[in-house]
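Title: Prediction job returns without error message
Component: structure pipeline
Severity: low
Priority: P3
Assignee: unassigned

Description:
Job completed but the reporter wants confirmation the result is attached to the right record. Sequence as submitted:
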Amino acid sequence: MKRYLMAPGPVAVDPHVMLVMAEPVIHHRSPQFSEILTRVRDDLKYVYQTKNDVFIMASSGTGGMEASVCNMLSPGDRALCIIGGKFGERWAELCQTYGVETVNIDVEWGRAVDPAQVEAALNENPDIKAVFVQAHETSTGVKHPVKELGEIVGRRENTILVVDAISAMGVYDLKTDDWGLDVVVSGSQKSFSLPPGLSMVSVSEKAWKFAEQSKCPKYYFNLLKERKALGKKTTSYTSAVSLIIGLGEVLRQFKEMGLEALFAHHRRLSGAVKTAAAAMGLELFPRDDSEAITVFKAPEGIDGTEVVKILREEYGITIAGGQAHLKGKIFRISHYGYLSEWDMIIALAAIERAMNQLGYKVEYGSGVAAAQEYFAKN
């Protein structure tokens, strides 16, 4: 059975990039690797749209999230966490792990936070030192208004904005510097179309002042150490050499394509699948959705986990289901990774068949035809 990976991470990887990573491993302290690492860091600035340094650590994206907490705050500090899904919950859990008190804004899953709520919370709690948010909440498909949040937090000298952009960076236009995003986290296994294993974190000048005062314990995830290592064109600890070489090839392709074309590619895949959903009579779950993934609401009487299971076990297509209280109620298809319009067509055809198998009548070809028409016109 031919396998297709269309989950929101890990994602399908370009075979050419895999071959680049399969070349003989070089030493992480060699001049050859220092040259590669320097180039990759510079190219990350291009995608991040920042002049700030971007640090690369050998971890999943959660490692970058943890580094953003333990490097910026101290036990007893207060932070504002926007919770509208599983990864918003993770911000609060990480803060609590390091003794940081959280003020939480609980947002209905499927909705974006209202910036006015954030401003009100900051006015009520002027001692809050950091605001933690997802650019894109992968568990629900929601895009939060980080530009507006950057404007709100940017007016406060003693507060920084920390953004989980793990499934957003490289998918749509995130202007780190122009929007005042102080700490931005990304990961290799999402839009950078690599295997899991790298987290990338950018730090603004404003945020460095917080890092210099932080008293949270840290060893491996120490960004001040990484800043010193950067000056020596290396990393503090052993670099994930092959993954970084693969990242270099991905970034080369991104620069060759250009950011606007990269963002347009994701908008195109997303637009076609969302158009197909309407043609099939399927509702979307989020009201403030993202071009990173499409989140389908399972129709009444249909278990979304069964849709995921049929696609994976009978058709060889891996998508994702819902988490926590959304388990069985939604299913998710990503639009990042090594995917094209034809992958979307295949997935939509499989969904049509699966829905019919489960007793929900979808006209065969309805979603596929709508997507085909969308692609032809766009």
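Comment from assignee: result matches the submitted record. The chain has a mean pLDDT of 97.
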